[in-house]
Specification:
The complex is a heterotetramer of chains A (224), B (236), C (595) and D (268). With 236 residues, chain B is mainly beta. In chain B, a hairpin with a 7-residue loop joins strand 12 and strand 13. In chain D, helix 2 runs antiparallel to helix 3. The chains are: A mainly alpha (224), B mainly beta (236), C mainly alpha (595), D alpha+beta (268).
Chain lengths: 224, 236, 595, 268
């Protein structure tokens, strides 16, 4: 019952000396002696790669709860169907496009890190492009609210509009979080401390935002 | 300072006194409140929920939304000067509001803006006093038996419906008024507004839940004006 | 004995300033201690509240000296008003459930020992970890402000059933601002716990040191891992619920408030909402929350027991699987809180079976604990005393679940003191015993000082007997139909029970006072206690290979390598010790189990 | 110290069980036709739970007594005969069977209350729960309840159900009361309506316990078998007056009930 396995093999990797005064890099804040992204890739230890999926699980759970609330509430007789602002279709496209640009950016960064491409400008450009599209999306959501307001549909007007505002607002908040992540990635890319795992996590989150939006959009759009 | 000055001063003082105090030359408005039509039937209140109170009423009390007397007189109507009289500072006396046998005594309590309101609980059970003020600050407090009276005051004129949620049948009214010229009609429907200096007044009679009638009255010197109000009541 | 391996993920440097060392620290150990301190403060507040409530229940019209000064409206002349009783009750429950039972065994001990026991230098996201604590702390502050708003705290209980909780001040004192503050506090608390759970899970998944396979994780790590999985899902559901509740208050939406309600003879301006929706959302969080409070305790107790029994559990696997089963089932049974709440009577039956099923994993755990005692060399010390007390309490609280799991019996016992007794024993007191056990066990490691054993034992004896005197009678009261959440007992069939309440009150005051011993022991030992060796209890898990207290970077910048699971007790070794530490390559000569 | 703990645990366990064994505190005697099953279920569960409670505590005590280490002890640790497997199987089989049995029989009692339709000739009574009192309504000679107009509810003039007799004919003969009276041995169909927040209709003696759900009118049905006066209390936290929210249930002979109803009608 007590599992005592034979001692595993230990291979010693090259380690920067960490016995000194204590300023050590790595993990969240590795500043390699040579400000070189390739060094960063090699020496920075693997950060947690599961965390992003854990976070996504939590977000899914929250929106599942909201969905159940929506379904329960739809059953009541005061439910009115509202026609969604047309701008939403545009912003949906923007969000999808941003996912594409981010993928391109990811490939560029990868090829740069592998040395295939020595130009750091183009990956950064694509990241900025994604950032811009994300901002446009949030702006689009804001315009959607203005449109609803002009139709006299406020948060408390009817259950459907309540859910619309709640869903879009919370999703927009999460998107803003993603934008912050992108900015962070761009900064790290700038001072050569970007780890691929960081970029990957950011990308996964960003794509998830797209998926989540499509789900919410359909939920609000289709009569269930 | 000359004699002339003194005389003037004296005259002025005298004038002031006659204007305000109940001196000679101040009039009175009195009268009777009656109703026409059929008043709503007052239902007996079953207090079995609160045995300690039920025990205090061998014959069950009834609701008090309309309390009538012989000859179609109407009780619990508050009559006051709504215009013509200046606002007055609150008197030092307290307006007492008691909870006896799960009933408000008095049912209709009139007092002045800023006057001290004293709410006491004579029962063996907890009451919660919940004046549903709209203009004034609304509050809702419980008063366990044997606790000191609740002291409060209102700073705006308002007719406030008072209820106890623990004993839903308990219902009363605070009539918070701007001046001291008010009266609540007695069981014969009589009311009396004394000590009114000469002037033109608007007299308002108010009956719960929100029936209101007004009349203009001119008082010149120490006369007695009689005013009467007739409320139209419906069975439902 | 130590062996180095690859460089661990150094996640932050050593603290340099006072702020970064003690206040906004990134160090999981400091954060753990911060959580512990918060829980300690919260539990004192919660306990004082319960004292006031108990006095009121025993002697309803007695004036409590000084209470008027605390709340002139709540206690005119020192006599507690019904609403103030309910407000204290609500705050007592909220503080205890969220800021004691969730923070202490999970966030406090977990933060301190999870990274150490998996051999990591810290959690992967120290900044999230720090935010997690400070968000929780903010939530606590927000909650406490409810005491200082004009109408006082909410009176709707910790379950805050809509519409009472959703229609605002007309529903009663505290239902306006107070209720919103309550909901806001919980929403913020959820954020804190989500960040924490995120860290816990990724620590276990990604930060394990060389050789620390999942099967070698100490049971406590599993307990915290399971708990954080539940926390992640449960708090993610509570937060939406609180958001919707706040919107119903401040934005005039109608998620939980149906049409045609009348308060004080006035129509409530809401329509179409669903009152059961809140109950479903709340209990979907609420029942897992119960296990969030107890599972870390089970882990701690198992950990403390194997160390003091000097033998492994009969089957650690059985315990782990049972914990997973509890966690899983807890999501399928929440409906048993709503048997008579107007839910479809068929679903009541549907919910009752998984609820009954929960007794199986619980029984497995208890039997494994008891069975493992057989033939052990049980060392009696305060930690093990509390661990054994935990088992006794867990059994006492657990069996009452037999009754409450059945809808038909729930007809009689629902919302009575039987329920109150049940959850206080199984989730309140048992979890508390887990916390005490963990404290006496790990205090030397956390502070570098030993606790006073004599005071500790006195504390155990008085607490053990005291809590039984308090919570057993609750079951008798409930059996006689004593409804809970009553500010006074005026009904003919309740008046005869008042003496029982008076007995409970006395027991509660006594037991509460006893906790001062614990506080004294804690503070005194922190400064005056004798220096603690690295491994005072001869434990095997990684926290015992480092000096007490551990340095800021846990293993001095070197990662331990793990060769065994944490159950290497009662073995024969060359050195003559009856245990092998996880990071020692040494192999047992022959395990001395069996006769 | 270990021995002391063992003794304490066993003493506490037995002491805790005594009041249940001696029936020191009992639920009020059952006066309903369906309550028998529930009481049976409760006592069965009490036996099973009691046995497992005592067994576990006493076993715990015995092992603590026997194996708390003496200073001289240098022996080896021994393993429980049969190891974990025996215990796990015991837990799963014994407890599994036990709880399944409980669940099965329990659902019978539950079904008796909730899955049987009220008899067609059951007497309809409406109960309205509000902060902080129950009020009851009898349909009167026409056998029909007038519609409820929430906006007309006014406790000041005791229009507790928001009736509009001026316009609703059915409302004119409705009888509204503050205490509930029912004839003995006659099935009652109780229609439950919540005026403001959630409340609960709990009559221990009747073995009836059902929440009021605002916005959702539920109903229960029962038959009282014993003349007498019992208490209806609220068990769902409904606000500051929760503790004092109650009404009396009078179970009367048919004759007395008819008189009572006449008296109430006169008072309307």
């Amino acid at each position: 019952m007590a599992t005592t396995l034979p001692p595993p093999k230990i291979e010693i990797l090259p380690v920067p000396d960490r016995s000194g005064n204590g300023h050590v890099g790595g993990g969240q804040n590795l500043i390699p002696d040579v400000a070189n992204l390739r060094v960063a890739q090699q020496y920075s230890p693997p950060a947690s790669s599961s965390a992003i999926w854990v976070g996504i699980a939590a977000i899914c759970m929250s929106f599942a709860a909201f969905t159940s609330a929506l379904i329960v509430r739809q059953a009541s007789n005061d439910w009115r169907h509202i026609t969604l602002p047309s701008v939403l279709f545009l912003s949906t496209l923007l969000l999808l496009a941003s996912s594409v640009t981010l993928e391109v950016a990811r490939r560029r960064v990868a090829s740069y890190m592998l040395g295939a491409d020595s130009n750091i400008a183009s990956p950064r450009l694509w990241l900025y492009l994604t950032l811009g599209l994300g901002l446009l999306f949030v702006a689009g959501q804001y315009m959607a609210w203005l449109q609803l307001r002009s139709q006299g549909l406020y948060l408390a007007t009817n259950p459907n509009s309540s859910f619309f505002y709640v869903f879009t607002a919370l999703h927009a908040l999460h998107v803003l979080g993603g934008l912050a992540g992108l900015l962070r990635a761009i900064r790290k890319l700038g001072n050569a401390t970007l780890r691929r795992s960081t970029l990957n996590a950011t990308a996964i989150y960003w794509h998830f935002m797209g998926v989540l939006w499509i789900y919410l959009f359909l939920l609000l759009w289709l009569k269930i | 300072m000359t004699l002339k000055h003194i005389c003037l001063a004296a005259a002025a003082t005298l004038a002031v006194v006659t204007m305000t105090a109940a001196g000679p030359g101040s009039g009175t408005i009195s009268g009777k409140i009656t109703y026409e039509g059929t008043p709503a039937k007052q239902k007996p209140i079953d207090m079995s929920k609160e045995p300690s109170c039920a025990a205090k009423h061998p014959t069950p009390i009834t609701t008090e939304t309309v309390v009538t007397g012989p000859g179609n007189t109407l009780e619990n109507v508050v009559v006051y000067i709504s215009a013509g009289a200046p606002d007055e500072a609150a008197p030092s006396t307290t307006a007492d509001f008691d909870q006896k046998g799960c009933q408000y005594v008095p049912h209709m309590l009139a007092f002045q803006v800023g006057q001290e309101l004293k709410i006491a609980n004579d029962d063996q059970t907890s009451h919660n006093i919940h004046p549903l003020a709209k203009i004034n600050r609304e509050w809702n407090k419980s008063q366990p038996p044997g606790t000191p009276p609740i002291i409060d005051k209102y700073d705006k004129a308002e007719m406030i419906h008072v209820k106890c949620n623990i004993h839903p049948w308990m219902s009363g009214t605070f009539a918070v008024l701007k001046n001291s010229h008010y009266a609540v009609s007695d069981k014969d429907g009589n009311f009396k507004l004394p000590n009114l200096p000469p002037g033109k007044y608007t007299v308002t009679a108010w009956h719960e839940p929100d029936q209101e009638m007004t009349q203009d009255v001119v008082i010149s010197g120490g006369e007695n004006k009689t005013v009467s109000f007739v409320f139209k009541l419906k069975p439902y | 004995m130590h062996e180095t391996s690859a460089a661990p993920a150094v996640v932050h440097g050593p603290p340099t300033t006072f702020l970064s060392k003690h206040v906004f620290s990134l160090d999981h150990k400091v954060i753990g201690l911060q959580y512990y301190t918060l829980a300690l403060f919260a539990v004192v507040v919660g306990m004082v509240l319960s004292w006031l409530m108990r006095i009121h229940l025993g002697w309803t019209n007695a004036a409590i000296p000084g209470l008027q000064a605390l709340s002139p409206n709540g206690a005119p002349g020192g006599v507690m008003t019904p609403e103030y009783y309910l407000q204290l009750m609500t705050m007592h429950a909220t503080i205890m459930v969220f800021f004691v039972l969730t923070t202490a065994p999970f966030a406090a001990f977990g933060n301190y020992f999870l990274p150490i026991q998996v051999g990591a230098e810290d959690m992967p996201f120290p900044h999230f970890n720090m935010m997690s604590f400070w968000t929780t702390f903010t939530a606590f502050l927000i909650l406490v402000t409810a005491f200082f708003v004009p109408d006082g705290p909410p009176l709707a209980g910790w379950t805050s059933y809509a519409p009472l909780s959703a229609i605002g001040k007309d529903a009663g004192p505290g239902q306006g601002t107070g209720q919103v503050i309550w909901a806001a506090a919980l929403g913020v608390f959820c954020i804190g716990q989500l960040l924490g759970s995120l860290n816990f899970i990724s620590t276990v998944l990604d930060m394990r040191t060389k050789g620390m396979t999942l099967s070698r994780l100490p049971v406590t790590c599993w307990a915290w891992f399971i708990t954080s999985c539940m926390g992640l899902t449960a708090f993610a559901v509570l937060m939406p619920a609180t958001i919707l509740l706040i919107l119903d208050h401040v934005a005039g939406t109608s998620f939980f408030v149906p049409s045609g309600l009348v308060l004080n003879d006035q129509l409530v301006p809401h329509s179409g909402g669903s009152t059961l929706l809140w109950q479903h959302l709340f209990w979907f969080f609420g029942h897992p929350e119960v296990y969030i409070a107890i599972i870390p305790g089970m882990g701690i107790v198992t950990h403390v027991l194997i160390t003091n029994m000097r033998r492994p559990m009969l089957s650690m696997k059985a315990i782990l699987y049972s914990m997973w089963a509890l966690a899983f089932l807890s999501y399928m049974v929440y409906g048993h809180h709503m048997f008579v709440s107007g839910m479809n009577p068929f679903s009541s039956l549907v919910f009752s079976f998984p609820t009954l099923m929960i007794t199986i994993p619980s029984t497995v755990v208890v039997l494994i604990w008891i069975g493992s005692l057989y033939g052990s060399k049980l060392r009696i010390n305060t930690a093990s005393l509390f661990a054994l007390g935990f088992i006794s309490m867990f059994v006492s609280g657990g069996v009452s679940g037999f009754f409450l799991a059945q809808p038909s019996i729930d007809i009689m016992l629902h919302a009575t003191y039987f329920v109150v007794g049940h959850f206080h024993m199984v989730m309140g007191v048992a979890a508390m015993f887990g916390i005490f056990s963990g404290t006496y066990f790990w205090f030397p490691k956390m502070t570098g000082h030993m606790m006073n054993e004599t005071i500790g034992r006195i504390h155990f004896w008085l607490t053990f007997i005291g809590t039984y005197c308090i919570f057993m009678p609750f079951h008798y009261l409930g059996w006689a139909g004593n409804v809970r959440r009553y500010a006074a007992f005026t009904d003919d069939f309740l008046k005869p029970l008042i003496p029982v309440h008076q007995f409970i009150t006395i027991a509660a005051l006594f037991t509460g006072a006893v906790q001062l011993l614990f506080l004294y022991n804690l503070i005194h030992s922190r400064f005056r206690g004798p220096a603690a060796p690295a491994n005072p209890w001869e434990g095997t898990s990684l926290e015992w290979i480092m000096p007490s207290p551990p340095p800021w970077n846990n293993f001095g910048g070197k990662d331990p390598v793990v060769y065994h699971d944490a159950d290497q007790y009662g073995v024969k070794t060359a050195s003559g010790a009856d245990y092998i530490m996880q990071n020692s390559p040494e192999q047992a000569l022959a395990t001395s189990e069996g006769d | 110290m270990g021995k002391l703990l063992a003794v304490t645990i066993i003493i506490i366990a037995i002491a805790s069980a005594v009041p249940f064994i001696l029936h020191t505190w009992e639920p009020p005697a059952d006066i309903s036709t369906h309550g028998g099953l529930i009481d049976e279920q409760m006592s069965d569960t009490m036996i099973e739970a009691g046995v497992s409670f005592l067994a576990a505590q006493i076993l715990l005590g015995i092992f603590i007594w026997q194996f708390s280490k003496k200073p001289s002890d240098t022996g080896k640790v021994k393993t429980f005969p049969g190891g974990a497997k025996g215990l796990v199987i015991a837990a799963i089989v014994l407890v599994g069977v036990e709880v399944l049995a409980l669940g099965a029989f329990g659902s019978k009692a539950w079904a008796a209350v909730y899955f049987t339709p009220p008899a067609p000739d059951a007497m309809p009574v409406q109960v309205q729960a509000g902060q902080f009192a129950f009020y009851f309504r009898y349909p009167g000679p026409d056998g029909k309840f007038g519609p409820i107009h929430p906006e007309m509810i006014n406790e000041g003039n005791q229009n507790l159900f928001g009736l509009d007799p001026a316009n609703d004919v059915e409302s004119r003969d409705d009888i509204v009361t503050a205490e509930m009276a029912i004839p003995v041995n006659k099935e009652v169909h109780l229609l439950m309506h919540a005026k403001d927040v959630s409340h609960s209709f709990y009559v221990p003696a009747l073995r009836i316990h059902q929440d009021f759900v605002p916005g959702l009118d539920l109903s229960v049905h029962f038959t009282a078998t014993k003349v007498g006066q019992y208490e209806i209390v609220c068990s769902q936290l409904c606000g500051l007056g929760h503790y004092n929210m109650r009404a009396y249930l009078k179970v009367l002979s048919q004759q007395d009930f008819d008189d009572w109803l006449k008296k109430q009608q006169a008072a309307q």
